[in-house]
Amino acid sequence: MKIKVLGAGGGEVTGSAYLIETGKSRVLVDCGIFQGGRHAEALNLFDPSDVSHLDAVLITHAHLDHTGRLPLLSKMGMPAPVFCTQATLELTSLILRDSAHVQEQDTNRLNKKRQRAGLKPVKPMVSHEDTEDIIGRLIALPYDNEFQVAAGVKASFAEAGHMLGSSCIQLSIEEEGKIKKVVFSGDLGPRGAPILKDFEELHTADAVFMESTYGDRDHKPLDETVNEFISIVKAAAENKGKILIPTFAVGRAQLMISILASMFRLKHVAPFPIFLDSPMAIDASRIYLNHKELYDEELLNFIREKPLMEDLKTLKICPTAEDSIAINDVPGPMMVLAGAGMCNAGRILHHLKYNLWKPETHVIIVGYQGSGTLGRLLVDGAQKVKIFGEEIAVKATVHTLGGFSAHAGQKDLLGWFSYLAPVRPKLVIIHGENGPRKVLGTMIREKYGIDALYPEIKEVISL
Known about the structure:
The structure is a single chain. The protein has helices at residues 39-43, 48-51, 64-67, 70-75, 86-116, 128-135, 222-238, 252-265, 279-289, 297-305, 321-326, 348-355, 374-379, 410-418, 434-448, and strands at residues 2-7, 17-21, 26-31, 56-58, 82-84, 138-140, 147-150, 153-159, 167-175, 178-184, 207-211, 242-246, 274-276, 315-317, 334-338, 362-365, 384-387, 390-393, 397-400, 426-430, 452-453, 460-462. The chain is α/β, with parallel strands linked by helices. It has a seven-stranded mixed beta sheet. A hairpin with a 7-residue loop joins strand 8 (153-159) and strand 9 (167-175). The radius of gyration is 22 Å and the shape is globular.
């Protein structure tokens, strides 16, 4: 058995994809898109030999860096089924359709420039037809239910606590009369995070492919982060400033809305206008509302006491471009939740363009910002940035609140691995920049005496 790293290796955090090859089967775990800078475009192209003759695809969760290349498989004629949880199926369908739409819009803009320059038009990476074809092959299966994936390969999904429907994948692979257990962590969530249940404990594995996004540090405790958030909101409200939150439409938007509801219910701050300026976040929120079986007990108790929407009477949804444009005329204090979460696309770019140069504006970064993205530039303290080709001075106050992260910090990553450490699996650390993944690997070696592998993209690991 060999496992080839096709993404989220070599210090890359995005592009998650791992090809498992046995004497009988070829199974792909995750099929994510690379994000962050021009180098990502070349990385997103699959070598046909890597994805030809696939028997199945397994998806840990719906985020684009784990699902975004799925339509490429359709484009390349790969007919295999794609297995995931029910919530992941619904959210993946939403995310892939939005991604296809964004690609089409970006390509249309690019082709107008190319036409003026006398160049031939280009096509988007994938079409709507490719997207609908792969969505039609998504198959939902319940958590903790082992199922046959391909010849000699069985799998089951375990709660990962990262986003609605997220899972760790446990594989049971039979080859030459022997069975090997392989675990892919997917993205792990922090213990005690709002909305979702905590990650499930796993105890058996011959090999573990483990994420390391925040392997070198812990986030602030959630209660401290919420208090900091309340302080920022109060200061902005007093100065009648606008608060811009670049928001991942699936997961982070719903988290922020639930926290705002709690703030208003507990009278930490007087209600003010909140604009959910993301069609995808609006649709994702409806999916979240339909999966209360995945909520943690704290949120269930909160909504039993009173429905969320009674605390969110000032929340306005903005499905159309006209709704979004109208926000520019609304005076502060007010808040805008808009995608994309890394400020690399979407409506947040327009709000940043019109407000970054104003000293009374507050920008709150609540999620990971990939290398090369506008969000990372803001986090790193850029004084000027370019948006739609125009240079914009950064006079706004930029806040980074890592405690809202949907990723487990170092302590929780080590906690997740602690249940597997007694069986001493082969450990492969992936999905992290080189610094964080090496720090995490060093801590695991010191704590458990297990040496980790740090594969590069295209590297093959034999089991």
